[in-house]
Amino acid sequence: MKALVLIRPKAGILDPQGQAVQRALPALGFEGVRDVRVGRLVELEVDDPDRLPAMCETLLTNPLIEDYEIRS
Amino acid sequence: MRFGVVRFPGSCDERDAQLAAARVGEAELLWHADPDLHGVDAVIVPGGFSYGDYLRVGAIARFAPAMASVLDFAREGGPVLGICNGFQILCEAGLLPGALLPNTSLRFVCRQVEVEVVNPDTAFTRACARGDRLSIPVKHTTGRFYSPEPVPEEQVVLRYADGHNPNGSQDDIAGVSNPEGNVLGLMPHPEHAVDPLTGSADGLKLFESLDRALVA
User: Fold this and answer.
1) Half-sphere exposure of residue B88: CA atoms within 13 angstroms, side-chain side
2) Taking the CA atoms of chain B, what radius of gyration do you get in angstroms?
3) How far is B69 from B26, CA to CA, in rounded Å?
């Protein structure tokens, strides 16, 4: 089955990429944007979705600095 | 004194690390897919872009067959030095605390910095005195050291000197060790500072420290 893993920088960690995006938007005419955080997305086909959390914690994310969300 | 320098697909500083180590002892390359460490006395995990930094810096290299052996070697007290990408790999492998994040500036930084030796009682800093300033180049985009828990003071080995923090590392931390002091990771490249020709030979002290570690 198809699964989507969203990987986000943990709250509280400085995200300069998000800041750069946030700074760029007003220059393009988009006001009122706050708290931009940039993460990563992994899409996969898995036979056994029960193993997804282990995959996330072992390889797909670094639990020290990232949170993940699994969507199917 | 035999050094083994692990080489991954995408490593680029393994040869310079080998040449630097060869000034102090013998040095050979260890291929990532080979779990045999060939009886070396010390392991260096070098700089570069192992696996293209895919997914996350060091995320894939930490699972190489050679790294499984390096983990055992380190747990048995063997000296392991992780330089730049090597530092990232050792953090991902859980041998060192914390993680390396993108530089605050988001820029690739390539310049000479000064670091202070905070802890001279590790396998790689015994040839230094507390407070020694070493001039060593950095070159990285992902060198900001971060640890959610404060790093115990005795594991903080090198700090960027005042005004020299190139990447926003917390507490100006440039290098950390494991609790036992046999594993050191640092973002600066001592292997590029072993000959006055390149402006500084301060980096050689880290390799020379190994001799003392074995004698002591």
Assistant:
1) 29
2) 15
3) 20
Q: At what angle do helices B14-22 and B204-215 cross, to 10 degrees?
A: 50
Looking up tokens 């997305």 gives A41
Q: Is the ipTM of this complex over 0.85?
A: yes
Fold of A2-71: Mth169; Chain: A , (3.30.1280)
> What's the token pair of residue B196?
């006055």
What is the per-residue pLDDT across A11-34, written as a single tens digit (0 to 9) for each? 999 999 999 999 999 999 999 999
Task: Look at strands B26-31 and B2-7 and give their pairing.
Answer: parallel
Q: Which residues contact B150 (CB under 8 A, 6 or more apart)?
A: none
CB contact under 8 A, A60 and B55: yes
Spatial contact of B177 and B119, defined as CB atoms under 8 Å apart: yes
What is the distance in angstroms between the Cα of B60 and the nearest Cα belonging to chain A? 8
Domain ranges in chain B are: 2-215
* Cβ–Cβ contact A28 with B under 8 A: no
Nearest to B92 among A13, A20, A62 (CB): A62
| Per-residue pLDDT tens digits for B137-147 | 999 999 999 99
Q: Top-level CATH class of B2-215?
A: alpha beta
The token duo for A70 is 């699994």
- Domain ranges across chain A: 2-71
